């Protein structure tokens, strides 16, 4: 059995001061994927650089300081690490890392990735950047699945994909149809990840008829209290691994003051 969690921490240093450290100490996850770390290894709070019970974490900061950044904690040493996905434009932008874990307890070897897909902004250069990233990344996903299948390995891409795929994935979908993150072309691209590249949205596979469960709520207004959220944090896996998923939950905070990020952890347990 392996439990994997993904969460956008909205700045690891800020999250550390709000309760992330206690959450990490208490989690039963074997792998924790982080997005929007906004710090390199030296800037990470000392107690989070090599916390007890974890191998030395992997951090990939963005070349632009204070932006993006992904990271990963794992209980066992990975057999391989990779920063970026072979993109000349995006490999130094702190948006993708992956590790290989060895087979264990009847599970196949698993490659775990942490992804922070650009958020975009409708009608701006930021949206054009997001679209370029999506084009390159889909090609990588197709090639990665073929490569790993030949090696007898499975892949799960965990992270903030910054796209709500269906109407059930955000509360106020009618008023957000021209908003980045729910644009028709973005949703169609994510459909291609599933239908053409052959990956599986693990949460949705286990909860096909559920509204949400949402993983992000704006800090503005009373979005969290009213559960006016978006489901944009996913674990998207190759079919063989997705078939081993036994449970998938969003670790929603009990109340607004308990939050240490505007996102909540998404946790999936896989078992042979």
Number of domains: 1
Largest sheet: 6 strands, mixed
Silhouette: globular
Average residue-wise pLDDT: 95
Helicity range: 10-25%
Low-confidence stretches: none
Q: Report the structural category.
A: alpha+beta
Explain the layout of strands and helices.
Layout: E1 2-8, H1 12-18, H2 20-26, E2 31-35, E3 58-60, E4 70-74, E5 80-83, E6 96-101, E7 109-116, H3 125-151, E8 153-160, H4 184-195, E9 200-201, H5 202-206, E10 233-237, H6 239-242, E11 245-250, E12 266-270
Parallel strand pairs: 1-2, 7-8
Antiparallel strand pairs: 1-12, 2-4, 3-4, 5-6, 6-7, 8-10, 9-10, 11-12
Helix pairs in contact: 3-4
Binding site for Mg(2+): 8, 36, 160, 162, 262-263
Keywords: Hydrolase, Magnesium, Manganese, Metal-binding
Active site: 116, 160 (proton donor/acceptor), 263 (proton acceptor)
Walk me through what this model shows:
This protein has one domain: 4-Layer Sandwich (Deoxyribonuclease I, Chain A), CATH 3.60.10.10. The protein is built from six helices and twelve strands. The chain has helices at residues 12-18, 20-26, 125-151, 184-195, 202-206, 239-242; strands at residues 2-8, 31-35, 58-60, 70-74, 80-83, 96-101, 109-116, 153-160, 200-201, 233-237, 245-250, 266-270. The strands form two sheets. A six-stranded mixed sheet has the order 3-4-2-1-12-11. The mean pLDDT is 95. It holds the Pfam family Exo_endo_phos. Residues 6-263 form the Endonuclease/exonuclease/phosphatase domain. Mg(2+) binds at residues 8, 36, 160, 162, 262-263.
């Amino acid at each position: 059995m392996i439990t994997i969690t993904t969460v956008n921490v909205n700045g690891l240093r800020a999250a550390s001061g709000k309760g992330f450290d206690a959450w990490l100490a208490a989690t039963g996850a074997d792998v924790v994927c982080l997005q929007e770390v906004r710090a390199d290894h030296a800037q990470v709070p000392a107690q989070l650089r090599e916390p007890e019970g974890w191998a030395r974490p992997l951090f990939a900061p963005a070349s632009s300081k204070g932006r993006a950044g992904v990271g990963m904690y794992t209980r066992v040493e990975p057999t391989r690490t990779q920063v970026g996905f072979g993109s000349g434009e995006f490999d130094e932008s702190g948006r993708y890392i992956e590790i290989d874990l060895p087979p264990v307890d009847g599970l196949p070897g698993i490659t775990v990735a942490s992804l922070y897909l650009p958020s975009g902004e409708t009608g701006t250069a930021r949206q054009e950047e997001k679209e370029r990233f999506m084009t390159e990344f889909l090609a990588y996903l197709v090639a990665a699945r073929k490569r790993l299948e030949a090696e007898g390995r499975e892949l799960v891409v965990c992270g903030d994909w910054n796209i709500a795929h269906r109407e059930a994935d955000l509360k106020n979908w009618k008023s957000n149809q021209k908003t980045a993150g729910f644009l028709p072309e973005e949703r169609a691209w994510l459909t291609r990840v599933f239908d053409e590249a052959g990956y599986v949205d693990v949460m949705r596979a286990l909860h096909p008829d559920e509204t949400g469960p949402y993983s992000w709520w704006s800090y503005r207004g009373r979005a969290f209290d009213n559960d006016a959220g978006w489901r944009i944090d996913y674990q998207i896996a190759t079919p063989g691994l997705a078939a081993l998923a036994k449970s998938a939950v969003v670790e929603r905070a009990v109340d607004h003051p308990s939050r240490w990020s505007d996102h909540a952890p998404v946790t999936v347990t896989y078992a042979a």
